[in-house]
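Notes to self, Ribosomal RNA small subunit methyltransferase A:
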Amino acid sequence: MNPSTHRARKRFGQHFLTDEGIIEGILRLLAPAPTDKIIEIGPGLGALTLPLLERGMTLTLIELDRDLVERWRRHPAQDRLTVVPQDVLTVDFAQFGNAWRLLGNLPYNISTPLLFHLIPHAAALKDALFMLQKEVVDRLVAAPDTSDYGRLSVMLQYHFHMEALLEVPPQAFTPPPKVDSAMVRLIPKLPHERPECNPVALSRVVAQAFSQRRKMLRSTLKGTLPADGWDALGIDPQRRAETLSLEEFCQLSKVFNAPRDFPENS
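result:
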């Protein structure tokens, strides 16, 4: 596909990867096998798609831009392409079965909602290799008691092993974004690799604890624990959410009672 015939659309957050060295580096990280079930989110003009097709891969493409959808549907290798013309945030990944691999240079304006959208499907996923804003990658892999550590860190680290990989400068794209990018790999954790707790309860306590980041837990979680809860857990209520480990959040979730007005979708 010729980039000169398609103008990047701001409303789709399109920044097309053009740096051949970066593209080759991503393909090495992906290391695709002939039998892999690869789903690419936002194939764009094919920076990654075309080399994979040249290697004989069969791909599923999720693309919202109608012009690009039509281009891929007319591609000479269309017999090895399944095109899903849909907003990825509305895609039910259950339809793809198990052991699929995700690949994508994600629009930065949907990256965090998409990561949360994938959580219920983690068990069916083999791995994911994403290009994200570097700031988001830093948050994903952040350790407790650091400025990048937050709700995204805790919830994604409960479900996935994550590794920050290749850093990508703005000039690797056309048009160049205003931020640095980076690759991150997500590998679902097996049940025995996760602390024991209810993921729904964990999500609710983490959202509440980080709702006022600068305040102490005794303020952000006021009225949500039994009177003797803090002593029983051995957690100092004067700590802030960003200092708690995943394991400590799981402990909290076991005795957490969400307030009545707490949003169900938090």
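- The first strand starts at residue 16 and ends at 17.
- Residues 199-253 form a domain with the Helicase, Ruva Protein; domain 3 fold (CATH 1.10.8.100).
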